[in-house]
# Entry
Amino acid sequence: MTTDSAVSAPDPALRAPILRPSARFMLSHPAHWIALGFGSGLSPVAPGTAGTLWAWLAYWVLQSRLDAAQIGWVIALSLPLGWWACTTCARNLRVADPGAIVWDEIVAFWLVLWLVMPTGFWGQLAAFALFRFFDAAKPGPVAWADRQFKGFGARGGFGILFDDLVAAFCTLLVLALWRWLW
# Structure
């Protein structure tokens, strides 16, 4: 019989404290590969921005191969997959919300793009800039969301995603107000 602590313990091969995840760490577990945005989170400068840029590029590829409903399903499935991946990766890094985990930016920005389409390059760029502002500066509701779910395990994994989903909502709200007023 296993206990909860045995189930949630980091992989023994990964017990050494990790200050900055590496390609080796990323490739050591499928959850790491996903949570680190297929390598975009390993960027030494602004990993959240690198992950969001990766999301934008990946969305263009998805859009060329899938219709809007299929992209919606990809996003819907990416949320629980990301919850698991972020939970596992954060636990193995032994950091509650590591900056290198960018799956939260990826899935949240996919949601933004999915809901603002069809829009041209400038509309997408505005969405990108607003999302990065809300995610990085964490004003008002985003800061509140960031404080709500901390720690390790499923609660912490959800928290990694939650503040970015609130940043996505704020981005969509500003874009909707802008379209309504102009």
